[in-house]
Specification:
The structure is a single chain. 57% of the residues lie in helices and 3% in strands. By secondary structure, the chain is mainly alpha-helical. It is a multi-pass membrane protein. It is found in: Membrane. Keywords: Fatty acid metabolism, Iron, Lipid metabolism, Membrane, Oxidoreductase, Transmembrane, Transmembrane helix.
Length: 321
């Protein structure tokens, strides 16, 4: 069941695993998952020695930063805050653009991503959560196993979250189903695009090769691990100034690279809020982009935080009550 706010709500009396899953990932797709996890890591090993000397140029740095920023915001603003939690509404062109750019982060097709994340919120840090670091207990060994599971291990599991239960609204959107079906195309574009630009700007195969290494493969692996760190690190440690039913915490060192996603405690206390970093100094680039979209008339009905709501959600207010 999905609430009017886009949040997954377990039906009353439902056993967590009864309708959570919808079969297994097809073997070719599962092989592709392993490839996209391992190949960029191998590229990282190759890139380290190449970075000494002429293996890294300013063009590579600019391309890497630009593609990282765009695809990361596609996930944080698009997949996460818009499609999963409906923290704002978007015009049809913006909605499709966010779906496409988010897909180019190579974190899976949009329907899979949203279904997994809504399931995570429905059962956060409880039985049924696809990637809780607390799934195996609280001993040091159990938490080490849980960290691996939350960071990467769950992705290598072939079980598929039930999209009809967790993302029925997206399944009814023909444009989004088309974007989902074309995930292979967005993957080709996001990997080939930087190489094409690098080759054309330098007019050399070497420029294309280094751009592919840094702005394609290394950019993807960095974005993967930053996103996975929100699942793992931000559910193990961090400040928890707001009351939530799970272990979500704020981890400030990840704030810039995650575009504000690591202000994770308020997000779990108030999932439909469009801004996650609400306290002074908490930079939230994703919220700023939503604000720009709102000013441009492309986003509307934005669920901005209010002082009254933040006061009610604060741990201190709960303790006083």
């Amino acid at each position: 069941m999905v609430s009017a706010l886009g949040q997954s709500v377990p039906p009353t009396g439902d056993r967590p695993h009864r309708t959570l899953l919808a079969g297994k990932r097809p073997l070719p797709a599962h092989v592709a998952v392993y490839a996209f996890v391992t190949v960029p890591l191998v590229a990282l090993i190759v890139a380290v020695p190449l970075s000494w000397g002429h293996g890294l140029t300013w063009l590579d740095v600019i391309l890497t930063a630009a593609w990282y920023t765009a695809t990361c915001l596609g996930v944080t603003v698009g997949f996460h805050r818009h499609f999963t939690h409906r923290s704002f509404k978007a015009t049809r062109p913006l909605r499709i653009a966010l779906a496409v750019v988010g897909s180019m982060a190579v974190q899976g097709p949009i329907l899979h991503w949203v279904a997994d994340h809504r399931r995570h919120h429905a059962y956060s840090d409880r039985d049924g959560d696809p990637h809780s670091p607390w799934a195996f207990g609280t001993s040091p060994a159990a938490l080490a196993r849980g960290f691996w599971h939350a960071h990467l291990g769950w992705i290598l599991n072939r079980d598929l979250t039930n999209q009809r239960r967790f993302a029925p609204d997206l399944l009814e959107d023909r444009d989004l189903r088309r974007v989902d079906d074309l995930f292979w195309l967005w993957t080709v574009i996001t990997l080939a695009g930087p190489a094409l630009i690098g080759g054309l700007v330098t007019w050399s195969w070497w420029g294309a090769a280094t751009a592919f290494l840094w702005a394609s493969l290394l950019r993807v692996v960095l974005l993967h691990h930053i996103t996975w760190s929100v699942n793992s690190v931000c559910h193990l440690i961090g400040d928890r100034p707001f009351a939530s039913r799970d272990k979500s915490g704020n981890v400030w060192p990840l704030a810039i690279l995650s575009m504000g996603e690591s202000w994770h405690n308020l997000h779990h206390a108030d999932p439909t809020c469009a801004r996650h970093g609400v306290r002074p100094g908490q930079i939230d680039i994703s919220a700023r982009l939503i604000w720009i979209f709102e000013r441009a008339g492309w986003a509307y009905d934005v669920r901005w935080p209010t002082s009254d709501r933040l006061a009610r959600l604060s741990v201190a207010a709960g303790a006083d009550g």
